[in-house]
Amino acid sequence: GQNIDQPTEMTATEGAIVQINCTYQTSGFNGLFWYQQHAGEAPTFLSYNVLDGLEEKGRFSSFLSRSKGYSYLLLKELQMKDSASYLCAVINSNYQLIWGAGTKLIIKP
Amino acid sequence: GAVVSQHPSWVICKSGTSVKIECRSLDFQATTMFWYRQFPKQSLMLMATSNEGSKATYEQGVEKDKFLINHASLTLSTLTVTSAHPEDSSFYICSARAQVAGDWYEQFFGPGTRLTVL
Lengths: 109, 118
Fold this sequence. Notes:
The complex is a heterodimer of chains A (109) and B (118). Chain A is mainly beta. Chain A has no helices and eleven strands. Chain B is built from no helices and eleven strands. Classes of the chains: A mainly beta (109), B mainly beta (118).
């Protein structure tokens, strides 16, 4: 089967750094997405990785290791507005998007 | 960036009626669109993949006769919930896939439609 694993919930402090991990097992790989979703809203795109390594975009960075089937999303200088669910999704060889269940991130003052 | 719109944003209907939700890619052509459903505090659940000019591919457990999908053009896909019942109340989200460059695809989401069936 195909599956994406990520922690259900994480808690972090405002101003700190948090790393959200995602491991995947899919039939082929054509890229990995990270999305942010606030409650009651549709997901918004954060990052796309298809090659190994770290992609940095402002306060957010995403890392991919294809050999390990592993990615993480790194959020720096956390702000209260970063409280949301973070979804990891992988495109498999059939160009189907396989979704993780999401990680709910709670930011405390 | 690419924009995907959905209409209506929210709808309340009586049990037994049908509801149509439109999904449009405003500034790009989308050969593939996806329909998702999301219940409160749960992750996105893919309902079907819609390809322009062909029949939609439904995920296991999704009734194709109840959730009618039409992808008539490269910028419009519609989802019709037929004979809606209270258990169909959910947040319905569409997305459109765009090829940004080479093998780089990005999936753009519409704002969602909140359906409440009384």
